[in-house]
Design a protein that fits this description.
Elements (H helix, E strand, L loop, with lengths): L18 H7 L15 H4 L8 H15 L1 E6 L5 E4 L3 H14 L3 H4 L7 H7 L3 H12 L6 H10 L6 H18 L7 H12 L20 E2 L5 E3 L7 H13 L13 H15 L6 H15 L10 H7 L1 H12 L6 H37 L9 H12 L4 E2 L1 H8 L3 H13 L4 E5 L2 E5 L4 H5 L1
Antiparallel strand pairs: 1-2, 3-4, 5-7, 6-7
Helix pairs in contact: 1-3, 4-16, 7-8, 7-9, 7-14, 9-10, 9-13, 10-13, 11-12, 12-13, 15-16, 16-17, 18-19
């Protein structure tokens, strides 16, 4: 992904700091501006008097330096990465933790008794991240076609569809592996799932790059990021695994790092190391989801970070560049990702509210019909989908996948809808498809 060019920030050095000069500016400037924004030099220099810009920057950097927490990760020059949490970010972090600790039903404002319904209502969202992550990396397949492929479990027709299917399997792999400790082998497994059957950049699934001809462009023909030497990859990724597996609970005297912050740092560092010829972004985002699920923030199964990153790729790139051009300050990337997570939660809430309203409308219609009390939740939800798409079909596999039920139950539910003449059976070889009649609404009435 191309990244826009950013001017490197003047380096702050505590040894050579001019304390009399700082005394003039410290009372006037904080870690953030008046709106709570954690500004990089590239933006700050245009918001202050030009002849005082560098002094103001050093005053801000001094205050950030005091609050910085170093992490046990280093760039190629041996300089550590670090971050701080200003007040505006503390508020965001609190909001994320509070929301992520709930369930989909709580997010939607549903009663606890409706949690099972909420789970079913978000079934299609699990596919959203797989699709958006691939589109962020350049896949051209439309969302409608991609969802149909995943729902029908059909084989991909081209490399773009293959990328989307791989991403779907990758998220499943992250969920399945969330109880494991992070290892270099697990990172390789994530990458293999992400890139299997693709040929972009001559990628070899599950294999590190064996050359240093991979770099990230700045959007203006220059190089924004040159990853570490390929010979260092195993050693540097082992250090990343050690960081991921270290105890940062804050108990028994150990350092505290909020799990969501740690997950974001893992995301950044995989992108920084860029250990593969292709698929680094997908693997990095899978690593983020893996760590959130590892810490039992199950709500992250249902939000799509990539969808929002795809809508603002420039800002995503800037958040990387701000860190790399300001003494490895991870705060920029963490702050941006917290914004994306909060927006993703808001979209999840909106989606659930819309789907719940749609479902309740169908339930109200069914209650007036002779079928109302005879159908269970899954059957009612199938009818809800059916009323929106006359002529579409359902398969047993799709119902099993969407609702997490056994084959026999799915087949039984569909056949009961056929018995009520709300779906029409059609043979497709040895399988049966269940087609939505064009006059379904009239049949319900």
């Amino acid at each position: 992904m191309a990244k826009p060019r950013v001017e490197r920030a003047p380096k702050f050095d505590l040894v050579n700091v001019d304390f009399p000069m700082l005394q003039k500016y410290l009372p006037l400037y904080d870690l953030t501006d008046s709106k709570g924004r954690y500004l990089h030099w590239d933006k700050l220099k245009w918001r202050v008097p030009r002849d005082e810009a560098q002094n103001i920057w050093f005053a801000i950097k001094f205050q950030r330096f005091i609050q910085m927490k170093e992490v046990d990760l280093f760039d190629v020059n041996g300089d550590s990465f670090s971050y701080c949490i200003p007040n505006s970010m503390e508020a965001k972090l609190h909001q994320v933790i509070k929301t992520a600790g709930g369930s989909v039903a709580v997010v939607a404002g549903m009663a606890a008794t409706m949690q099972i319904q909420a789970k079913f209502l978000v079934s299609s969202l699990i596919m959203e991240e797989a699709i958006s992550s691939a589109q962020l990396e350049g896949a051209a397949t439309t969302r409608e076609v991609a969802k149909k492929m995943l729902e029908d479990e059909r084989a991909p027709l081209n490399e773009d569809e293959r990328m989307i299917l791989n991403n779907f399997f990758l998220l499943k792999k992250a969920e399945k592996s969330c109880k494991e400790e992070l290892s270099v082998d697990l990172i390789l497994d994530f990458h293999q799932v992400a890139t299997e059957g693709t040929t972009e950049n001559s990628v070899v699934p599950g294999r590190f790059r064996d050359a240093d001809d991979i770099y990230v462009e700045d959007g203006n023909g220059g190089i924004a990021h040159q990853p570490p030497n390929h010979e260092l990859i195993p050693e540097r990724l082992q250090a990343l695994c050690d960081f991921a597996n270290a105890n940062h609970s804050g108990l028994d005297g150990c350092e505290f790092i909020a799990p969501v912050v740690k997950a974001i740092i893992l995301h950044f560092m995989l992108g920084y190391e860029h250990p593969f010829r292709d698929g680094n972004g997908r693997t990095a985002r899978a690593l983020f989801y893996w760590y959130m699920l590892k810490n039992e923030y199950d709500l992250f199964k249902y939000i799509s970070i990539s969808k929002l990153l795809k809508d603002s790729p420039k800002d995503y790139g800037l958040s990387y560049l701000y860190t790399e051009t300001d003494q490895n300050d991870l705060t920029y990337f963490i702050d941006y990702q917290l914004d994306m997570i909060i927006r993703a939660f808001d979209e999840l809430k909106k989606y659930l509210e819309e789907k719940t309203q749609e479902f309740n409308q169908v339930v109200a219609l069914l209650e007036k019909s002779k079928f109302g009390r005879s159908l269970n939740f899954v059957q009612k939800d199938i009818i809800k989908k059916a009323t929106k798409s006359p002529g579409r079909y359902f398969s047993v596999k799709e119902i099993v996948s969407d609702y997490g039920i056994a084959d026999n139950s799915a087949r039984s539910y569909l056949n009961k809808l056929v018995e009520y003449r709300l779906l029409l059976p059609s043979k497709d070889g040895r399988s049966t498809l269940y087609i939505v009649p064009s006059d379904l609404l009239q049949r319900l009435v």
